[in-house]
Amino acid sequence: AAGWAASGVTAVVTGNNRASVALLHHLHDRPGPRPAHVGFDELDLADVLDPPLSTVAQDAGGIGQAAVDLLFERIAAPGLPPRSVVVPTRLVVRRSSPPPDGAPA
């Protein structure tokens, strides 16, 4: 972790809960500054981790509903062209992602 600070790394985004927990474990007893950290996919225990983990929370119900809607749409009209659906997410800010030095909180 100290090597990260020396190389200029100030923030890390992990793509899933397993990677988030692995990074927190790796950084736990390391001296020096920690990079800001945001995980992708809300973790039930995010509030009790040290530090509490900022996450991008997905709407699992919304994703499931969109998938079912697309499936039924495809069954009803197999010739329709593929389309994309965007399901909103939300950023849950906790202490693992403090503002940069000098930035307003």
UniProtKB/TrEMBL annotation:
<keyword id="KW-0805">Transcription regulation</keyword>
<dbReference type="GO" id="GO:0003700">
    <property type="term" value="F:DNA-binding transcription factor activity"/>
</dbReference>
<dbReference type="Pfam" id="PF13377">
    <property type="entry name" value="Peripla_BP_3"/>
</dbReference>
<dbReference type="GO" id="GO:0000976">
    <property type="term" value="F:transcription cis-regulatory region binding"/>
</dbReference>
<feature type="domain" description="Transcriptional regulator LacI/GalR-like sensor">
    <location>
        <begin position="38"/>
        <end position="97"/>
    </location>
</feature>
<protein>
    <submittedName>
        <fullName>LacI family transcriptional regulator</fullName>
    </submittedName>
</protein>
<dbReference type="InterPro" id="IPR028082">
    <property type="entry name" value="Peripla_BP_I"/>
</dbReference>
<dbReference type="InterPro" id="IPR046335">
    <property type="entry name" value="LacI/GalR-like_sensor"/>
</dbReference>
<keyword id="KW-0238">DNA-binding</keyword>
<keyword id="KW-0804">Transcription</keyword>
